[in-house]
Fold these 2 entries.
Entry 1:
Amino acid sequence: MSHGSGGQMTAKLINDIFFKHFQNDILLKAEDSAVLDMNGKIAFTTDSFVVEPLEFNGGDIGKLAVCGTVNDLISVGARPLYLTCGFIIGEGFSIEQLERIVISMSETAKEAGVKIVAGDTKVIETKGLFINTSGIGDVISSVSISNSKKGSKIIVTGNLGEHQASIMSARMGIENNIKSDVAPLIGLANIFEKLQNSPKNIDNSEISKTAIQTMRDITRGGLVTVLHELCEKSNCGVLIYEKKIPVCNEVKGFCDILGLEPIYMANEGKMLIVVEEKYADKVLEFVKNCLYCENATIVGEITDGSDVILKTLIGGERILSPLYSEGLPRIC
Amino acid sequence: MSHGSGGQMTAKLINDIFFKHFQNDILLKAEDSAVLDMNGKIAFTTDSFVVEPLEFNGGDIGKLAVCGTVNDLISVGARPLYLTCGFIIGEGFSIEQLERIVISMSETAKEAGVKIVAGDTKVIETKGLFINTSGIGDVISSVSISNSKKGSKIIVTGNLGEHQASIMSARMGIENNIKSDVAPLIGLANIFEKLQNSPKNIDNSEISKTAIQTMRDITRGGLVTVLHELCEKSNCGVLIYEKKIPVCNEVKGFCDILGLEPIYMANEGKMLIVVEEKYADKVLEFVKNCLYCENATIVGEITDGSDVILKTLIGGERILSPLYSEGLPRIC
């Protein structure tokens, strides 16, 4: 508990664990705020992480905390640059486990090209660990959940449901090979510049700056929840094809047994991208070449309706209602 | 628990409570990150709040969360502009109490001139409420904990110990009039410009841009903890005078009974300001005219030693050791 007092014990914890692994010139100044040079439009976001268990197949709360905020920045067309992290630590929490989680954060931050520039530590009597990460990045392109247009194609960057299936497996004590998909989708940051400079430019014409209309990472509540937000904000409908929804065999089996639907399940390394129809194949090709996106696929399109409709395998149409309550707390 | 699922229940909570009170054009876009125009140097900071009780004489966790982050930004010479907030809410938490706290945040944010531009909500099984606030501001002047120079004067902006005494009183069930000092010290933001434009310019000469060397809000661990950080980072010593330390009579009495020292106690609306000696009186006069700073006083000076020394009331000198562990968890 004394690690949270603000005195010498707090300083020791910060030096021994956080500064050691999060080293960078800005953090080490130990000011009350990091001072950064930014010009123009910046993106600013926050996310708290309360996942249980703290370590799971494919990741841990630290990796999740970095990826979640990095992906939220990428979702608005930004290049992620700086993170802060706030730790709320239960008394008696293992220092070894804390250090493992901090190392995981540090490695993920390196992979994502972001610096952790400020932090805070509090200690509480309750067991466990909660991490908040906030992040800023410079906004390069203008995408928005309100910007999807009728006829545009919807790309999902990979297999759905893996994060939730991994957490559920851990909680239920089921042994399988399902790994959380938690990943920083840094290949999708700055996507316009990359597309424009792409040597594989199919028709050699410049890709329009408005080609990509919406990006949104697909987390809690799954694909359907994102699609409902999109319909509401972009004032449109959506049609997706069940046969196109990418799901790996193991998650498919897991879902069949438990009666779950991957389109409602949480992911931590998947993006939804809405692209103007004529650029859809080119963007898909680009996306498939990004790390963690090799299974990207076009799952459907924007319609002039207002519902989220699933074309089922047998050819029927089903209106997908929004998730009301999934009953799976502490998924991220 | 379903309020944390990411589905409709989460959306309802966000609309009914957070959007309702935190209304502004940026937040209402409901993107994954807020997009903001910033130019030049910006300050970026984070803080988590776990105070218990959640509501206390003089404030609540929401007011604390806004003030803490606002004051951290002011500490590096920034003008606070935008906040994010992350809520971790215990299952079964009273919606009425949550709304009271959110209203308190909203009012404090208005007073401080900051907008809450992004947020996040998680629900856990544990009881209680934790709030993280992160903030950004534009940096106008350059102050640093590493920048204090020998001979400079140390201003404390008001009476010490009130926040901690208020929290302790609440926990111990002691009835008294001690109010937490929690406040946004917004009058101290942008202090240089204000000083330069001050009509009360004592000698009519422009105040030097380097007049104010260090600002730091005095929170957990109290004045002595800040002074130790300052000595370490600025490579100096400090002499403070016991008779100059501002403490109100009620806190003095409270401390006498419990054997506490106000210089080690937590505050939530007090700043330490180190000023070049020749400008000290002018800056003090300015500070005393700022809201929440009327009891500001010069408590000591920077020395060429390395210790934090207290000149006692009876004329002796006492080396003040850093706080090791104060045994008062969840003070902020």
Note: DSSP finds eight helices and 13 strands in chain B.
Entry 2:
Amino acid sequence: MNTLINGLPCDTISVHDRGLLYGDGVFRTLLLRHGKIQHWQRHYAKLFADCGTILLPCPAESLLYDELANLIQDAQDGVAKIIVTRGTSQRGYVPSPHPATTRILSLNPLPHYPEEFAKSGVRLHICQLRLAHQPRFAGAKHLNRLENVLASAEWDDPDIGEGLLLDEAGYVIEGVRSNIFVVKDGNLLTPDLSRCGVAGVQRERVIDWAGQQGIACKIMPISLDDLLRADEIFLVNSVIGLWPVREMPGYHCDHHPVAQSIRNWINHETD
Amino acid sequence: MNTLINGLPCDTISVHDRGLLYGDGVFRTLLLRHGKIQHWQRHYAKLFADCGTILLPCPAESLLYDELANLIQDAQDGVAKIIVTRGTSQRGYVPSPHPATTRILSLNPLPHYPEEFAKSGVRLHICQLRLAHQPRFAGAKHLNRLENVLASAEWDDPDIGEGLLLDEAGYVIEGVRSNIFVVKDGNLLTPDLSRCGVAGVQRERVIDWAGQQGIACKIMPISLDDLLRADEIFLVNSVIGLWPVREMPGYHCDHHPVAQSIRNWINHETD
């Protein structure tokens, strides 16, 4: 059984669960390598913060960790997902001040991506869909993900590794399932996510790593023009690690020395 | 059994359903009175259009209607809910071009609201949360409803009947669970919902009714100042029918002749 609900083997939830009714919950996607969940502390800290953002009590760390251990058992590699919802409801939108949350843990096989995505880089599609500004819960990994779904429907060319999402003002925000970094004149830049986007764990790790290396990493508004003038561009998330960007309309780059050195660090360091 | 999933009695769905994972679906809330679903044709037309907005094939009208009839059986009064999701997924955000949708039908008792909400009008809370502009799926009743949930958490005074939602630009858009109309100099005004908000069936009925009565109903941007200068304000949805607005910060109105005449029509006419 590869799914646990509130600690028990089960793969269905109530149709009255607010996760379904309203997308009223948050989630995390965690990499399992060599039998160990990567960066658990950081993921739990994000889950806790995201729950706070939507006024949801976060399950205790020890409870989730024990349930994850029970879920994983002897598995070596895979992708674990944790969803926390506000539980069932009969009261319309109004959230209970003391909800009985639903914890959904599932384990899936590692996805297979073409090897050249990591080695030579990916092509980006620039999505037509623009992300809306919702500062009230920007940055959080909540279950309202229709923007990502509809953006993902914009291309079906398997050579395109990721879609680039701009916001309603035209600024670069993220990939559909990843965060984005720019290398320019030896510095790192990554978009400000205070109005939209998801602030992932791998993004946070790269920012912290840059600080430790004495490399400036600026969190700032980044225009599409800034992107096209980049020395290098790369994407990160917890599952893919790091993919350099080889190509997008108006941009081509075959050499990614900075991105590859960060990728080596991502793939070999733990924290 | 008061829940049907894909036509069969059941009240759970897969944890892999995209309705849960991403809020990837749409819904409708329908009033059952005297054993009859009110305004079915309009609801189905909205469901069909909303499915189209998120690139989801809509179940056939006859299929849903037969399932609703089966759900309702001998019930006389209640609230029926139809949810259509993009079904299960193992592929991340990317939607299948030919999804096996999930149909979830449920029947609940009529909610009990204080009688004076309809007769004397309600107090409005002006929500701090501002609606984000997402023209790609504005107007549709989709399952990404965190804005409504968090706005609903802003007050707990039972004398407040509804929350007023403004958009990120400060314009009046809707109630948390209702659409809003303004009466001014004998005309009706209702907010433009092309950038955010849900365009409900009752709103559409009132707009059509006004046209038949030779009353101008303008769909336009409405500022909070416009609202405070209104002769009357009222809220509509399929379940409450119509509630006049008696009070909000900066506004008080005890006489609602236009709203009450429309309420009489709403409560006695069918289409």
Note: Chain A has two domains: 3-108, 115-268.
